[in-house]
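Subject: design request, 292 residues
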């Protein structure tokens, strides 16, 4: 289930965020992204306990940070072992861009571990040529799309469709998949529990220095960013990640489209959001994969 909280709702009573779960420099110029073993289920967990109190992450985001951000923004959090996604902000879904390189890399490495070089470049440097190599290694576009989509399903995302053909000729098919914060978080919270995922999550901990904005400022973050323009040239900038907190890990997704439409303003907004998360890390509780 998913809970989304507006400014008015936070004043009411339920928002987030003491989620108690059982233990179990200079920036380079960026170009747009071009872009079945059974899953090991995470541990189950009781519903999140939430309280919209002044000084909490939810309260501070809605009442202090969000009004200062010049753009649409979205935040989502989901501990491993939980099914209750908590979302804040007014952005909910859009193209995956290079965040889809995470399930793509997992699919390709399962099929051929020799693709580790391409996976390294696709994840650590968001290299589009390397990602295309991974895509093509899976077979025809139709087979590749079905294989990546199967990884999403294994990760609990029952809705996202990976297209086989390019909706926009200049960009990859997989990067144009519409991936909501809810579905992305569900996948991220299952990712560490999926067979073979260590090869991918380890790369997510080695993102190149030029792409360590946003979640890259959090110690121990495993993450991947994605960015690209809509048909009017306005950039969506987003990240998916896993953060170590008390009790295990928590999946976090953040996204923005700045009013200016620029990539740089988008990364600045995500970094401001992450700075707020950093201040509230002790409120968050994580989870772990089920023993198997």
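Subject: RE: design request

Done. Sequence follows.
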């Amino acid at each position: 289930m998913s809970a989304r909280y507006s400014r008015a709702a936070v004043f009411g009573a339920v928002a987030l965020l003491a989620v108690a779960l059982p233990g179990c420099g200079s920036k380079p110029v960026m170009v747009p992204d071009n872009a079945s073993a059974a899953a090991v289920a995470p541990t189950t967990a009781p519903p999140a306990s939430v309280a919209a109190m002044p000084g909490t992450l939810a309260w501070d985001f809605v009442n202090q940070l969000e009004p200062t951000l010049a753009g649409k923004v979205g935040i989502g959090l989901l501990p491993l072992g939980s099914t209750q996604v908590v979302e804040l902000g007014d952005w909910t879904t859009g193209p995956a861009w290079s965040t889809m390189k995470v399930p793509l890399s997992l699919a390709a490495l399962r099929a051929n571990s020799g693709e580790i070089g391409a996976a390294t470049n696709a994840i650590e440097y968001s290299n589009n040529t390397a990602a295309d190599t991974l895509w093509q290694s899976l077979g025809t576009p139709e087979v590749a799309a079905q294989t990546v989509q199967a990884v999403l399903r294994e990760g609990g995302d029952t809705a996202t469709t990976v297209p086989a053909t390019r909706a926009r000729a200049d960009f990859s098919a997989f990067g144009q998949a519409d991936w909501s914060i809810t579905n992305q978080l569900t996948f991220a919270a299952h990712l560490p529990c999926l067979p073979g995922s260590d090869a991918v999550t380890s790369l997510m901990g080695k993102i190149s220095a030029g792409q360590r904005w946003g979640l890259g400022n959090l110690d121990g973050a495993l993450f991947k960013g994605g960015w690209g323009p809509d048909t009017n040239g306005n950039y969506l900038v987003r990240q998916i990640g896993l953060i170590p907190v008390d009790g295990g890990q928590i999946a976090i997704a953040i996204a923005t489209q700045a009013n200016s439409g620029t990539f740089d303003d988008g990364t600045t907004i995500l970094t401001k959001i992450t700075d707020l998360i950093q201040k509230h890390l002790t409120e968050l509780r994580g989870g772990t994969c089920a023993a198997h």
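Confidence is low (pLDDT under 50) at residues 5-32, 34-51.
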